[in-house]
Specification:
This is Hemerythrin-like domain-containing protein. Belongs to the hemerythrin family. Keywords: Iron, Metal-binding. One of its GO terms (molecular function) is metal ion binding. The structure is a single chain. The chain is mostly helical. It has one domain: Four Helix Bundle (Hemerythrin (Met), subunit A). Helix 1 runs antiparallel to helix 2 and helix 2 runs antiparallel to helix 3. The longest helix is centred in the middle third of the chain and has 26 residues. The radius of gyration is 15 Å and the shape is globular.
């Protein structure tokens, strides 16, 4: 376990009956924490970029898997959930672009951006993804 954690996994994040989705959520939390720890340990920008790329790829795959469950949601909630995914991926991609830009960013700036992404993701799992279970 890393010294610096941004997200703390708990059973509250588990979706009943969705082992794959739960495992993916847990894995994404772990990647965010790995990235956060690397930033706080003064990791090099190439490593930070590399983990951010993995986080983006894993998130894209996870969202695609999750979207196969949308048939359980009313049409308006499907649309909203898809928009949430789209906007999050845009924000994560923009974060990666900023890291790749070569512009010198402070640890505080990088951390604030990652914290914002992590807060959104945690809230999304608790509030939006939980509807995938309650609408079964």
């Amino acid at each position: 376990m890393s010294d610096h954690q941004l997200l703390q996994w708990s059973e509250h994040f588990n979706l009943s009956g969705h082992q794959l989705i739960n495992a993916q959520h847990h894995q994404l939390f772990g990647l965010v924490n790995q990235l956060y720890d690397l930033i706080h340990r003064g990791g090099d920008i190439e490593s930070i970029i590399s983990i951010t790329r993995v986080l983006l790829q894993q998130t894209e795959g996870h969202f695609a898997e999750e979207e196969t469950l949308f048939y359980r949601l009313p049409r308006d909630e499907q649309t909203l959930h898809l928009l949430h995914h789209k906007h999050y991926l845009e924000a994560l991609s923009a974060f990666l672009e900023r890291l790749n830009s070569g512009v010198d960013m402070s640890v505080e700036s990088i951390t604030d951006q990652l914290r914002s992404l992590a807060d959104w993701y945690q809230s999304h799992v608790l509030h939006s993804d939980s509807k995938l279970v309650t609408n079964c």
